[in-house]
């Protein structure tokens, strides 16, 4: 062999072999080299229970210090659990440990914490199920493994899902969210039938629950709210509960026929009570018609004379109240104070009897009872059917003609079929014109009459549409376009509900007979007339951009100005939700998220364009929740600082989002940019 330089590769260092030792617990402490810094004591109580039941299954890894003590670099939570047991008198012996050189401490700690792999959920819930089959109950299993009873019950529910679906989950064909959705029913055949439906595999857990429970009624349904879950269960109704939902949205009623029967019985009882009040007819509705009584006439409560008995009772109560007040002025008395409250409540109850519907009005009118969108019972009293309105009008016309004829006979006039010739049309027009001119001068000098006249003219078509001779001499006209038919889910719209409540409040204050309206108005204060005028003027406001219109009509621009003057904040009346987003294209959804979140949106808008529509809607609704985002059409200029520059900037965001996404068709970009 020739003399030459030979490179020799040094062998890799051989790891030190740890030595096993039994070390007293008092000589152990956590090493600073232990890499776990966060949640160091998480689940320690449960781990302590497990060690107490099963013993210490895994040694601690330690190194010895110069002082003869040992630092734990792997097993800090186990050490904390052992100390808990020792403090409770449940652990007294030494601890099995593996002793390593100190220079390997941090490397070993990192390896122990990083290289571990969590148990697959399917393995976990099948293992829990095996323990339960051995005779262990949920509280015992939860205590032994340091978890909650609810967690164990949820895992047991998952273990009961069809094995075919669990297999699909293990293979990665199904998410855990989808698997938990299937656990809402126990029927394996039903679970597999729904899973094999082509569209379900792209659905979220919520979509799968809807498919599984398509014949069930959610507890949030208006009928369920009306009947109440307690009454339904007392009647023998079956309830399906989702163990994975924390709110009432995870409860369904499995017997819709029973639910409808209970609702009909409860509503029928209310209808019977209304009939007992004396109404001419009573009709029930499962869904209360929001605008279904537009063509109906109305009667309203009015002042009623008290009966002799009521007047006598009121006099007696008033006298007793005055006596008590005199005594209390002389000296405080707790017993008399309580009696005073009782007497005043009784006086109020008697006085309420002098205002209500007359028996005559109740006989010619009726009442409707139905459910609102929220499941509350709503009653409309004083409705007059359209055919009854027409009949009453004809009867009044005949009665008026007969009354005029009788008056003429009483005055000695000869009533014939051919009355005395009237003035010519020209002369009639001239005479009434002269009278009108004089009347205008008088009204011009009386602002109070002018205000009453404006309110009278506006109130007639709103409150007395079908009243006989409902016409005002003040030719001030106001139209009110229908909003109900233009708003999806109008029954749940808070603004329409507020207008309805205001209309009903005024309806109860105004006289029931249109002939009494003018006299009533002239007796009111200026403040009352102005309040009523504000309501009536508001009904004529039209800021709707209709589908056939191009550009922005002047009245829409004026509505924008009014909104700024009124400091309108649509966040009070509207918030974005999944139902609204579902009506948008995916490009519009992405633009809404980009606009509503700004820089926080990150990569979410482009991601939404790639997701299925249902998932994109769900993700966008979560992202925009609580941010107060409004579509441009709902923004108020003065309040939101919305300008043409801001509007164009928002539009650019939408276009940029789409352009930066590879799989969006170019026509989509052009369409959004054109808007």
Automatic annotation (TrEMBL):
What range(s) does the ParB-like N-terminal domain occupy?
Answer: 21-114
What the entry lists under Gene3D superfamilies is as follows:
1.10.10.2830, 3.90.1530.30
A Pfam family matched in the record: ParB_N
Xref: InterPro entries: Chromosome_partition/occlusion, ParB/Sulfiredoxin_sf, ParB_N
Q: Where is the signal peptide?
A: none
Which PANTHER family does this one have? CHROMOSOME 2-PARTITIONING PROTEIN PARB-RELATED, CHROMOSOME-PARTITIONING PROTEIN PARB-RELATED
User: By what name is this protein known?
Assistant: Nucleoid occlusion protein
Q: Which organism is it from?
A: Methylobacterium isbiliense
């Amino acid at each position: 062999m020739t003399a030459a330089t030979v490179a020799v590769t040094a062998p890799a260092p051989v790891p030190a072999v740890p030595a096993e030792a039994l070390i007293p617990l008092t000589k152990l402490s956590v090493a600073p080299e232990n890499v776990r810094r966060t949640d160091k004591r998480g689940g320690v109580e449960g781990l302590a229970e497990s060690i107490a039941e099963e013993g210490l299954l895994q040694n601690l890894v330690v190194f010895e210090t110069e002082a003869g003590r040992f630092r734990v670099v792997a097993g800090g939570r186990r050490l904390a659990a052992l100390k808990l047991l020792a403090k409770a008198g449940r652990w007294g012996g030494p601890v099995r440990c593996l002793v390593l050189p100190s220079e390997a401490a941090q490397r070993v700690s990192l390896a122990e914490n990083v290289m571990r792999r969590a148990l697959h959920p399917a393995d976990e819930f099948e293992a829990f199920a095996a323990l339960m089959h051995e005779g262990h109950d949920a509280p015992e299993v939860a205590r032994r493994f340091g978890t909650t009873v609810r967690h164990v019950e949820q895992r047991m529910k998952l273990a009961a899902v069809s094995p075919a679906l669990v297999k699909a989950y293990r293979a990665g064909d199904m998410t855990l969210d989808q698997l938990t959705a299937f656990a809402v029913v126990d029927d394996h055949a039903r679970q597999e039938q729904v899973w094999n439906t082509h569209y379900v595999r792209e659905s979220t857990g919520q979509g799968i629950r809807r498919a599984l429970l398509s014949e069930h009624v959610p507890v949030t349904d208006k009928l369920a709210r009306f009947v109440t879950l307690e009454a339904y269960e007392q009647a023998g109704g079956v309830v399906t509960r989702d163990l994975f939902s924390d709110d009432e949205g995870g409860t369904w009623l499995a017997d819709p026929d029973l639910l409808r029967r209970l609702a009909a019985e409860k509503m029928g009882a209310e209808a019977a009570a209304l009939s007992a009040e004396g109404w001419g007819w009573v009709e029930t509705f499962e869904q209360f018609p929001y605008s279904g009584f537009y063509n109906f006439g109305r009667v309203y409560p009015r002042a009623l004379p008290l009966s002799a008995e009521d007047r006598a009772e009121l006099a007696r109560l008033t006298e007793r109240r005055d006596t008590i007040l005199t005594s209390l002025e002389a000296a405080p008395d707790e017993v008399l104070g309580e009696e005073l409250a009782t007497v005043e409540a009784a006086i109020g109850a008697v006085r309420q009897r002098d205002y209500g519907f007359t028996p005559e009005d109740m006989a010619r009118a009726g009442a409707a009872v139905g459910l609102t969108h929220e499941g509350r019972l709503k009653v409309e009293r004083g409705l007059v059917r359209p055919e009854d309105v027409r009949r009453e009008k004809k009867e009044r016309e005949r009665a008026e003609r007969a009354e005029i004829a009788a008056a003429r006979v009483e005055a000695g006039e000869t009533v014939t079929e051919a009355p005395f010739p009237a003035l010519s049309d020209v002369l009639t027009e001239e005479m009434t014109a002269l009278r009108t001119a004089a009347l205008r001068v008088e009204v011009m000098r009386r602002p109070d009459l002018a205000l009453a006249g404006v309110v009278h003219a506006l109130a007639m078509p709103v409150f007395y549409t079908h009243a006989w001779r409902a016409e005002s001499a003040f030719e001030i006209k106001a139209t009110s376009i229908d909003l109900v038919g233009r708003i999806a889910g109008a029954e749940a719209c808070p603004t329409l509900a507020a207008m309805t409540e205001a209309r009903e409040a005024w309806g109860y204050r105004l006289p029931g007979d249109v002939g009494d309206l003018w006299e009533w108005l002239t007796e009111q204060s200026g403040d009352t007339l102005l309040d009523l005028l504000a309501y009536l003027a508001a009904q004529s406001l039209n800021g709707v951009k209709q589908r056939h219109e191009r550009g922005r009509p002047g009245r829409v621009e004026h509505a924008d100005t009014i909104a700024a003057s009124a400091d309108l904040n649509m966040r009070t009346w509207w918030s974005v939700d999944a139902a609204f987003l579902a009506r948008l294209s995916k490009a519009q959804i992405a633009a809404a998220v980009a606009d509503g979140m700004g820089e926080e949106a990150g990569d979410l808008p482009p991601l939404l364009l790639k997701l299925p529509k249902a998932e994109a809607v769900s993700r966008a609704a979560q992202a925009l929740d609580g941010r107060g985002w409004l579509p441009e059409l709902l923004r108020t200029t003065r309040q939101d600082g919305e300008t043409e520059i801001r509007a164009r900037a928002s539009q650019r965001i939408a276009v940029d989002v789409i352009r930066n996404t590879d799989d969006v068709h170019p026509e989509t970009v052009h369409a959004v940019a054109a808007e």
